[in-house]
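note to self — DONT lose this again. spent like an hour looking for the file last time. sequence + predicted structure for the chain T wanted, 820 res
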Amino acid sequence: MTLHRLPLADGWTLHPDGPVPVGLPAGGVPATVPGCVHTDLLAAGLIDDPYLDDNENRLGWIGRTDWTYRTTFHRPAADASPADLRADLCFDGLDTVATVTLNGTELGRTANQHRSYRFPAEHLLREGTNLLEVRFTAPYAYAEALRERLGDRPGAYAEPYPFIRKMACNFGWDWGPTLVTSGIWRPAALETWTGPRIAGVKLLGDVDPDGVPRLTATLTVDRRGERGDGSEPLTATAEVAGEQHTFTVPAGDATATLVVPVPGAGRWWPHSHGEQPLYAVEVRLGGHVWQGRTGFRTVALEREAFRIAVNDEPVFVRGVNWIPDDCFPSRTTRQHLSDRLDEAVAAGVNLVRVWGGGLYESNEFYELADEKGLLVWQDFLFACAAYPEEQPLWDEVAAEARENVARLAPHPSLVLWCGNNENLEGHADWGWAKDLGDRTWGYGYYHELLPAICAELDPTRPYWPGSPYSGSPELPPNAPESGTVHLWDVWNRVDYRHYADHAHRFVAEFGFQGPPAYATLRRAVSGPLAPDAPYVRHHQKAEDGDAKLLRGLGDHLPQPGGTGTASFDDWHWLTQLNQARAVAFGIRHFRSHTPYCMGSVVWQLNDCWPVVSWSALDGDGRRKPLWYALRSVYADRLAVLRDATLHLVNDAADPWDGTLHLTRHALDGTVLAEERLPVATPARGVTRVPLPPSVATPADPARELLVVRLGELRTVEFYAEDPAVDLPPARWTATVTPREAADGPAAYEVRVTAHTLLRDLALFPDRLDPAARVDGMLVTLLPGETTLFRVTGAPLSDPDALTRKPVLRCVNDTAADAAD
């Protein structure tokens, strides 16, 4: 008999267990599964959207309330006798502390959002209607009670997230709201079957010592439905790449492992290095079928240098950090994830780090990463706090780790397991050790439990105890000479030029804030748009964030001027631009040190709501100027000027040969000096070219610039920071031409010809229509040069507005009206 799965997605209602400050119907609120309390109350019109204005402030009661989800279902007809039939109630995810009852009898309890659960239910099923209830204890009540029993632990936030196995950022972060959820957040179902059942299949795809792709498949069998005493061996088959192989599960055992060569399979590569062949795997046991997919590659980590190699080829990591894309993860669709990861690929990103304060993401996330050639660094879920190791937490961590290591093992995109985010640094450098005394803080997880589980279940991938980490508990965690570093003095305390203070081995976290796109902020804020407006400030969660934004402009850009709307427009433009410049400066420095430095991972790709933050894509998925800067500095080929030397970075598979053109210009475009040099940079290599004196030193730094050209690459370097440059009032001619649009309802070409120097020209069509987007920005033009922007996504009522402020901007457009 085949296994039958009855989805339990319909007919749910939600009920508070106690008084609440909103009026709920006597019969409960209709509930969506998967979902959570917040989304159900929002759908019922009982709460305001927590992402808008300061509505979040009035919803704290939800995380302090007990809730019950209730539904009924009919037992499906069976083609077997009741004595042979087995049935489990299956929950792919419960958030978080829950008691499950069927027809009034308790089936089990849960206390971990990061696990799935199965409860045997055949003994409680009735003919006809069955009543299923899931009662959730308030997360705060559970976590605070455990904190009281075990003793408090230091951390970045005064919230009890270390005491509950739940998405930590649910409790608020310096970029996220405090929206503490409860609910059935992943699918639920009733499974019925007879005979032995495939309980799970773990796949590992790697390459044997002779270079032949190899599949290791471990089958786990649930023998509860087997007739007799289980004393007979079981036979299963596995098919991969057109070849069929046989498992034998010995009598009395529940597991069997098959190791087979797959000689016809190609190797999987990150998109920056090759193709991504993937292979379906099908396992059959009787009438039960399991289907999966994997790819074949090797992964190695050179620990001191923190150099990741795929198929024996070192990879310079062009990375981004990933946070949960919605505070309510059940709303995140496959298409939504695909769009976000497509944006990463389009920006030149080749690795996504799934950060430890969030989630083990859905299967779809890793499937998409496999398909798109994005490497995945996966943190275990510990972040920015000391975590107790006492029960029941130790066993919960072990169970979630075992499940998720096995679940994610088939994915060739996954190349690293990491024990935690910043907890080793916190213990060593943030005063935690003194505060803790002899209380546990997570060392046993990061150095004992998790590496043991990874070694047992997934020996094909490296494990790293945490980030930042220098490779040994005896070394300072955030030392630049080895391992990974996080660089947060920049943003918090010092100018972004300090990124260049050291040559780092691998920069796993660094970033700079900027506001979201205009349309995103306008949607989220109903009041006036001003940096100090109450609702705008509510969407800034970083400590002293507004002051740091302005201080961060330093001597790089002018301070926003004017009053009212003009002041906001300048603030929005200049702080967004400064974010892009700061991060680009850091990446240029890191890449110029290749191969000593072999990676940078920007904080962060995405946001979970509309907020001023470090992201490149804002909470509505719109590109900030930072995204365009990433596309430039994460390109295969990059020219970096540092210490009077031009560093030609070639991360492509082909050599980069040609004539290097170096031209020193006056700001009016006059050529002051020229040099032509033949250069050749090998594949995956760097060439360092000292600048000739004629272009290295300007006669007047305030009135000159350097243009670097090599093939299609063009880079403009200034000899001084913008406020010290004699930037002319911006003048240009701009025309708008409607074009056929292949990917939207309308398209426009905006052609801009400079009459003066235009510094970092940018276009913001979302100010005219929230659906409009542009293909490029941050273009510097000399007088007489022209650039073309392509705007798509929406028909515009006034296309000519694309040629005027505040839609079309550059650094020097504040000196005079830009229209010609």
